[in-house]
Amino acid sequence: MGDAIRSYIENYNWSEGKKAGIGTIAVLYDHTIKGVTEKIVAVQHSVHSLISSNTHLHLDGKNCLEIIIVKANSKQINELASKLQSLRGVKQTKMITISL
């Protein structure tokens, strides 16, 4: 029972943006859409202090995957993922986060 309560408190504090966490944001996008690559890079530069690393994969002639490793609170990570998802040419974003 104690573990369940601790887990609930951790999840609550994380969701309220009260605790730091680490995570990844995977961004699948169509690089043939004019300007999308530059916009993704610009968004990352605007929050460079949150980003620990990123990896870029060329999936095929049209699609790319950007994996961004972040360390921030949940509000900051969610805002970054939302900014990326809203860009024209971004097909999908997925987040995985862990509270610290």
Account of the 3D structure:
It is a single chain. Helix content is 37%, strand content 40%. The longest helix is centred in the first third of the chain and has 14 residues. The protein has a four-stranded antiparallel β-sheet. It is α+β, with helices and mostly antiparallel strands and 100 residues long. The protein is built from three helices and four strands, in the order αβαββαβ. The protein starts with a helix and ends with a strand.
Q: Counting H and I runs of at least 4 residues, what is the number of helices?
A: 3
> Low-confidence runs (pLDDT<50, min 5 residues)?
none
Helix content: 25-40%
- Biggest sheet record: 4 strands, antiparallel
Question: Quick one: overall form?
Answer: elongated
The helix-and-strand class reads: alpha+beta
Series of secondary-structure elements, N-terminal to C-terminal: HEHEEHE
Could you report the average pLDDT, rounded to the nearest whole number?
Answer: 91
C-alpha-based Rg, rounded: 15 Å
Distance between the ends: 21 Å
Strand arrangement within the widest β-sheet reads 2-3-1-4
